[in-house]
Amino acid sequence: MRSCLTGRSGTKTSKVNYSSLASMSDGGVASTVETTTTAAAAATATATATTTNTNKRSLWPTVLRWIPTSTDHIIAAEKRLLSIVKTPYTQELVNIGTGPPGSKVRWFRSASDEPRYINTVTFDSKEGSPTLVMVHGYAASQGFFFRNFDALASHFKIIAIDQLGWGGSSRPDFTCKSTEETEAWFIDSFEEWRKAKNLSNFILLGHSFGGYVAAKYALKHPEHVQQLILVGPAGFTPESDYQNEWFSRFRSSWKGAVLNHLWESNFTPQKLVRGLGPWGPNLVRRYTGGRFGSHAQGNKLNDDESTLLSDYTYHTLAAKASGELCLKYIFAFGAFARSPLIQRAPEWKVPTSFIYGVQDWMNYKGAQEARDKMDEKVPCEIIRVPQGGHFIFIDNPDGFHSAVLHACRRFLSPDPDSQSLPEGLTTA
């Protein structure tokens, strides 16, 4: 089953293809039901299709639930947030099947043989525009790029996804027991999504943990990635790197020991949100209002943006635990990578641009060390954007857009070598 929703101002078109799972896998012809509806009806159609995919529809009214969310709520909240975006878009659930080709197990040892889906939004673009695929970070979803879609869609064909186990994508039971299995969860599911979308050459942008996944994917499948853009990427610092004296002391304290135990027990921030039940939305509102409002490191969200992002964030965090449980297998306490990217730097084959906010808590020096270990023939640059931290694309969207356009100058300019670094940006 694939659900498609075209987002535009005014009325919207919802197209839902109904077919058996067998006919899809065998290339059978699906019957098509096409209706023109209002935005609200279109959202309901999409949410219904999504809920059918996961086979998890709650019969309880929202006000009577301890955790007031559902798959329906995620898709509806996504639509409300993306209503800010002026560029028309199509939302679809892309079928990635039941498991990797040739595998004797279903997706990630799942007990279910149902197909899985990757929630995908594709924005209208000029014919011939280069394709830019955007991958979100940990505890986020593709909607976090809502301030960037309009500006970037004027230069690229933008495709943004929710990684498997996040946002509006399927949320299989997480049964990985090692770093290798956990990386495969994200890399192999992304590869099946690429095949389903019939993409062969694209620019891949990943933020934070999404940058880690994007880099690992490019190492495994460099033939598909034209350019890699890593925005505040996680995963370069090895677990053994304890150069920060303050952190070393904290780790050895009783507080550090408690937090380390919680980390190794896979206690995630999302569990706290779920545990608070009906008080969870207020906690998320306070965080969003503080991080991107009163304590913003750059361009503050306005009231409408803050309300819509808070609502969207709550529903994506409070839904069934799945991809979030990767945390302890990818990182040790302190966000030190168990399989650090810096160790793979000599194998790097894809031209890479690192983008960091000047106030980003992710240390750009890890990118510098990786660049030093890369083959000199592989283009690599580090761009720092002022007035912003880890979420530089929200804090300073204009600066972020300038950095992305500069990173992709060889796809956008007939004379890329003549393009100087935009004013305000610095290199490292």
Automatic annotation (TrEMBL):
One Pfam family hit: Abhydrolase_1
Single GO BP term: lipid homeostasis
Keyword entries, A-Z: Acyltransferase, Cytoplasm, Lipid biosynthesis, Lipid metabolism, Phospholipid biosynthesis, Phospholipid metabolism, Transferase
Compartments where found: Cytoplasm
Domain (AB hydrolase-1): residue spans on this chain: 130-397
EC class (word): transferase
UniProt family annotation: Belongs to the peptidase S33 family. ABHD4/ABHD5 subfamily.
Protein name (database record): 1-acylglycerol-3-phosphate O-acyltransferase
Native species: Oldenlandia corymbosa var. corymbosa
